[in-house]
Amino acid sequence: ALVQADFWDGDPDIDAICRLSRRPEVKFAEFPPFGSTQMAPFNSQNTFLAREVLPRYAVIPGIGRMDDIWGSFIAQYHFPESVVYNQATVYQQRNEQDLVKNLEEEVLGYRHTLELLCNPSEYERFLPAKARRFMEAYFNAF
Question: Are 56 and 139 in contact (CB under 8 A)?
């Protein structure tokens, strides 16, 4: 595994629709690490990256709350079947957030995530121009 994404107990990092409707507080039972042959999201919290992944993983500016999730899909496009998920190793007590603002910042993801997952080699076409320029500069820095 090149990426280990550990879960966390407490207030999960979920989308605004789920947070608005459920307001969950979670406590995961212990489970063995697992992976998948399919792309699956991981975020930038409680995640460990091998050095070789860094040139192809970034928290992408200019795309709202999809910044780390879409970054994870792009990394997995370059490194297929590289992620292992592990049991919770931290507790998160989330700070106050404006859930309506969060919802607004997730619209890009609601509109294009499925299409991105179906066409990962074309990820640049789903990014706003500023984010595309960032990704080009970031990738070229390595």
Answer: yes
Contacts with 82 (C-beta within 8 Å, 6 or more apart), sequence order: 1, 2, 3, 53, 75, 76
Question: Is the pLDDT score of 30 beyond 90?
Answer: yes
Neighbours of 132 (CB within 10 A): 16
Alpha carbon distance 125, 112 (integer Å): 10
The CA-atom distances, in angstroms, between 55 and each of 13, 15, 78, 107, 142 are 25, 27, 10, 27, 6
Does the predicted TM-score (pTM) go above 0.85?
yes
d(CA 42, CA 48): 10
Rg (alpha carbons) of the chain, rounded to whole number = 15
On the CB side of 24, how many CA atoms lie within 13 Å of its CA?
Answer: 13
With beta carbons less than 8 A apart as the criterion, state whether 43 and 66 touch: no
Nearest alpha-carbon partner for 71 in 8, 129, 139: 139
